[in-house]
Amino acid sequence: MSGGSVAFVNLGCRVNRVELDDIAARLEAAGLVPTAPAAADAIVVNSCAVTGEAEAKTRKTVRRMATLAQAPEVIVTGCVASLFASELSGLAPNVTVEADKSLVAGRVISLVGQGGGVPSACEGVTPTGRTRPAIKIQDGCDNRCSYCIVWKARGRGRSLPAVEVLSRLDETCGRGAREVVLTGINIGRYRDGGLDLAGLLDLVMARSDVGRVRIGSIEPPDVTERLVDAMARHGGRVAPFLHVCLQSGSDATLRRMCRAYDTAAYRQVVAYARDRLPKLSLGTDLIVGFPGETEGEFEESLAFCEEMAFSRMHVFRYSRRPGTPAATAPRQVDPREMARRSRRMRELARRMRRSEAERMVGSEQLVLVERAGRGVTGGLFDLHLDPSVPVGSLVRACVRSVLDDASLLGRLS
């Protein structure tokens, strides 16, 4: 059977996007051309099971892809595929489930054949058009947070050997990447023998000429002094940004979540990081409406977030994830109340982001140009600049002003 084109649909986290990029690269090497779902012979869906809503979205997406006019082969992978393979397979006759992502490219080729096309030109380093590619250095999680099922879907924590990290980094830089993100499900637990994440960062800096490295989302206990000191040692070559997952700013809620820290520990981590990294921008994830969250606990969480002065917050309303302790916990919060709390938290997030953006006016920023006239700073702020600056380049720019959406206006230094 002759092959042709393949489309990619990602649902969920950054790690899913990285895994989909790897699959796309293998299929492009086999001659299958990336295209839009409506024109594809095969569609790869990388699924997410982090919440009940995410799982429902996966099922809806698979059904929609399977019923497109050209009746494509739909190959589903990811966390929902690991947990509910038989249910996904039964959605349509042209749906194939492959939980093992290393086998997905082979499955696609077996269904539609190898292609002979020439990849279409697109901006970006990866076949899916991304300019800031990531390397998955770790997978799995050994935590047992009461709202999460990822540990079941992903398995126990395991790390990519450092030599393989360096090999992938060289390959990625060889494709033109100027910034690379180190990511994983729980990257702070990276271990290769005696090498931890701080040691890996030192090794990457010593063995690679990559322009900038960014550390992906990390748990508070893993933001060690060793890691922060390593970031400080390498200056601008490590993005001055940490996404430190909080989930709640109330100690009572954190205990019910079975998180491995309290607000005092979180505060201490942030204080040390800001002392050693004066230009640090701080991001986080935050859940509102967790079972049992009282109005007082929500107010505590709101106040703590304001104290931390996050520049980037992902605010989620709690969504029941069947199979987790939280799903059957007492005192589930009314959805209307969750929506109200979410609005208040998101408004705080907007105010804090704008405040951080205004603080950057007059500063010089290292900017990765992601598309014509638009780049991203080390602190993950969009910056508008001269559209003639080449896409993919890493340049220095002076911040002139803040726009209405809290993006920045700059000019080359």
UniProtKB/TrEMBL annotation:
Domain Radical SAM core intervals: 127-355
Gene Ontology MF terms in the entry: 4 iron, 4 sulfur cluster binding; metal ion binding; methyltransferase activity; tRNA (N(6)-L-threonylcarbamoyladenosine(37)-C(2))-methylthiotransferase activity
GO biological process: methylation
InterPro entries found in the cross-reference section: Elp3/MiaA/NifB-like_rSAM, Methylthiotransferase, Methylthiotransferase_CS, Methylthiotransferase_N, Methylthiotransferase_N_sf, rSAM, rSAM_horseshoe, rSAM_sf
Keywords on record: 4Fe-4S, Iron, Iron-sulfur, Metal-binding, Methyltransferase, S-adenosyl-L-methionine, Transferase
Protein name: Radical SAM methylthiotransferase, MiaB/RimO family
Highest taxon in the source lineage: Bacteria
Residues covered by the MTTase N-terminal domain: 4-117
